[in-house]
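Narrative of accomplishments. A recurring question from our advisory board has been how the design workflow behaves on a single, concrete structure rather than in aggregate. To address it, we present the structure tokens for one chain from the evaluation set, followed by the sequence designed for it. No filtering or post-editing was applied between the two.
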């Protein structure tokens, strides 16, 4: 079975040659491309067009193998040490040249120089590296990161730094629900930003890095997030589209809210009360968008794309997977951050959790929702996560499903009683997760607006109004004064 796969056609890490070319350059491009990527094998003695195993002339075959080894060692910079072996297939002998992923990227053909002689592998073909990708390979080979490099031609003042520190703490507090956890959030200082790589000390001065520029929205050619809703399952017809600009953390939040506005919301019965439930796990939606922002390549000028189709949510981020990062490793929690400074800042602001945990949690959440398994796709230049929707829009939870008839019934029917809602039932309803949290926010911030409540809870304004109107009807809360400057009065403990 394994043998059949090896000879089933050229791919990202497989290439065939009928014979060893007289000019080694004809296969040297593939050698450096494999070293710059995930590695691969070149089979000499296989027709790349017909896949026929023609074999090699066995006379002086070991001299041929030595010649291949020497040619690769001499032609490539840094030096590449191939593993050259023989393999017998259908009574024919083929030469197998295995190239491992390199740790000293970029690898290039010495005679062509780094700019012209660097190649990468994509979709089963070898291609000349693009400018942004070459810069990425150089940084990776030197164990440097683009986001921690000084942003050229940008200055920063103490007031600028203080403003970013203040903004980051406000975001962290807004993303933290429990008062006990809010108390643990420390102040961000200039030294904190330096330790993260958001600022950099050099020659006695403090300079902004690319991470600082991205977090403040001051990056030359600041990247954006493109969001769209499509009719059907392809990109033929737009229903709605939006593009978000500004600091990358604000872009992320805006894109997340956009998706929540566009997906379906169902309703379940949990104990004695009804509860709104989105069709997709909201924490996972937020996580995959946040990860796309934190781990994309900012050397590439493309945008993150968040696309909603009838059957799936699709999040695509620019940038090939880093060396030694594979989808199988990501499935078990492996992470190698491309932008560690941004990742540290996002972790502080409670935008992402621990590195590497997002993908395993995504699969667990989709399983709990009864959704199809998510899909991770490496495009050799872009990375995509697909989260699939349920066609029938039913939402599976661990609670009793509400039918259309249930939704239309009043509290008396839900509780199977003929009496009107009493005080105890009011309190039970107020204990619903969403309603309880709204009451907590109102108690802590009596003058807060509905929009700000929605922002803190990462819900739509309509969803928050729904709960507030029910609590008003039940006598649990009232609003005194104008909508933007009034005060919430709570009666839930009476």
């Amino acid at each position: 079975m394994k043998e059949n796969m090896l000879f089933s056609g050229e791919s990202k890490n497989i290439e065939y040659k009928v014979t060893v070319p007289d000019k080694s350059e004809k296969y040297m491009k593939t050698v450096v491309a494999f070293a710059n990527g995930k590695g691969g094998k070149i089979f000499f003695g296989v027709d790349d067009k017909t896949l026929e195993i023609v074999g090699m002339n066995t006379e002086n075959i070991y001299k041929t193998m030595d010649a291949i080894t020497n040619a690769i060692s001499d032609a490539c910079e840094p030096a590449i040490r191939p593993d050259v072996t023989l393999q017998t297939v259908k009574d024919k002998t083929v030469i197998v040249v295995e190239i491992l992923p390199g740790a000293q990227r970029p690898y290039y053909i010495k005679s062509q120089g780094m700019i012209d002689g660097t190649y990468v592998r994509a979709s089963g073909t070898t291609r000349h590296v693009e400018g942004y990708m070459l810069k990425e390979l150089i940084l990776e080979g030197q164990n440097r990161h683009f986001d921690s490099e000084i942003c050229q031609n940008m200055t920063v003042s103490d007031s600028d730094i203080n403003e970013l520190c203040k903004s980051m703490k406000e975001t962290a507090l807004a993303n933290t629900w429990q008062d006990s956890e809010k108390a643990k959030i420390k102040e961000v200082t200039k030294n904190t930003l330096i330790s993260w790589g958001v600022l950099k000390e050099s020659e006695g001065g403090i300079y902004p890095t690319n991470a600082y520029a991205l977090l403040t929205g001051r990056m030359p050619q600041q990247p954006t997030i493109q969001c769209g809703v499509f009719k059907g399952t392809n990109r033929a017809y737009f229903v709605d589209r939006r593009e978000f600009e500004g600091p990358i953390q604000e872009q992320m939040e805006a894109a997340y809210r956009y998706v929540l506005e566009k997906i379906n919301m169902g309703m379940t019965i949990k104990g004695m009360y009804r509860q709104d439930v989105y069709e997709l796990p909201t924490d996972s939606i937020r996580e995959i968008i946040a990860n796309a922002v934190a781990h994309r390549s900012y050397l590439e000028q493309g945008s993150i794309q968040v696309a909603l189709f009838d059957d799936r949510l699709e999040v695509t981020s620019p940038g090939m997977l880093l060396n030694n990062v594979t989808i199988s490793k990501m499935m078990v929690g492996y992470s190698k951050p491309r932008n560690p400074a941004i990742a540290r800042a996002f972790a502080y602001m409670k935008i992402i959790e621990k590195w590497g945990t997002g993908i395993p949690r995504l699969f667990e959440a989709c399983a709990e929702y009864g959704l199809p398994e998510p899909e991770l796709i490496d495009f050799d230049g872009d990375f995509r996560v697909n989260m699939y929707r349920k066609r029938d829009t039913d939402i599976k939870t661990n609670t009793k499903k509400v039918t259309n008839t249930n939704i239309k019934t009043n509290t008396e029917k839900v509780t199977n009683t003929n009496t009107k809602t009493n005080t105890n039932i009011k309190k039970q309803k107020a204990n619903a997760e969403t309603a309880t949290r709204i009451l907590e926010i109102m108690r802590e911030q009596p003058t807060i607006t509905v929009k700000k409540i929605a922002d803190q809870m990462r819900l739509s304004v309509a969803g928050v109004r729904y709960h507030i109107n029910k609590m008003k009807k039940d006598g649990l809360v009232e609003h005194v004064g104008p909508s933007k400057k009034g005060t919430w009065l709570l009666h839930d403990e009476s």
